């Protein structure tokens, strides 16, 4: 069951698993960790945009789109969500507990390193 922290919706593990199953209605889910962390292990199918890149790409993101952010423990992803909310984004949320709480499938390697945000639906 989701809850709110500092004005940001927090998504818990079981809800994230459901969102991953029904990706047609799901928000765009983005891993915001660093490349080495992502390569070590990430949720399959999630793109990587490191937290430090967001100030550079914020103008390329669709403010009407729904986003959910994932990191190691939920701290950096919370900060990305708060940053975007401060930039006028309405529907941003955080995966509470991050990869430390994740017990689902994990993939290693550089599966999807975003070089151009146009690669991700909902980003122009």
Characterization of the model:
This protein is an alpha/beta fold. 28% of the residues lie in helices and 15% in strands. The protein has a single domain (3-117), classed as Oxidized Rhodanese, domain 1 (3-Layer(aba) Sandwich). The protein is built from 5 helices and 5 strands, in the order ββαβααβαβα. A 5-stranded mixed β-sheet has the order 1-2-5-4-3. The radius of gyration is 13 Å and the shape is globular. The mean pLDDT is 94. Residues 23-111 form the Rhodanese domain. This is Rhodanese domain-containing protein. It comes from Halalkalibacter akibai (strain ATCC 43226 / DSM 21942 / CIP 109018 / JCM 9157 / 1139).
The CATH superfamily bears the name: Rhodanese-like domain
Mean pLDDT: 94
Question: Level of helix content?
Answer: 25-40%
Give the uncertain stretches in residue-range form.
none
- What is the CA–CA distance across the termini? 31 Å
Largest sheet: 5 strands, mixed
The ordered string of helix (H) and strand (E) elements is EEHEHHEHEH
Q: Which strand order do you get reading across the main beta sheet?
A: 1-2-5-4-3
The name of the CATH architecture is 3-Layer(aba) Sandwich
Query: Could you name the CATH class?
Result: Alpha Beta
Q: Tally the beta strands.
A: 5
Instruction: Compute the number of helices.
Output: 5
Query: What's the shape?
Result: globular
- Based on secondary structure, the structural category is alpha/beta
Protein name: Rhodanese domain-containing protein
Domain Rhodanese: 23-111
Organism: Halalkalibacter akibai (strain ATCC 43226 / DSM 21942 / CIP 109018 / JCM 9157 / 1139) (Bacillus akibai)
Pfam families: Rhodanese
């Amino acid at each position: 069951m989701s809850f709110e922290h500092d004005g940001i919706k927090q998504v818990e593990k079981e809800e994230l698993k459901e969102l991953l199953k029904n990706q047609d209605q799901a928000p765009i889910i983005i891993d915001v960790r660093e490349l080495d962390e992502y390569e070590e292990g990430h949720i399959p199918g999630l793109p990587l945009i490191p937290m430090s890149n967001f100030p550079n790409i914020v103008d390329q993101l669709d403010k009407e789109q729904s986003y959910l952010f994932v990191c190691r423990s939920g701290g950096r992803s919370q900060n990305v969500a708060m940053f975007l909310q401060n930039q006028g984004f309405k529907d941003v949320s955080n995966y509470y507990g991050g990869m430390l709480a994740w017990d689902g499938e994990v993939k290693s390697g550089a599966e999807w390193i975003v070089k151009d945000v146009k690669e991700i639906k909902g980003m122009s």
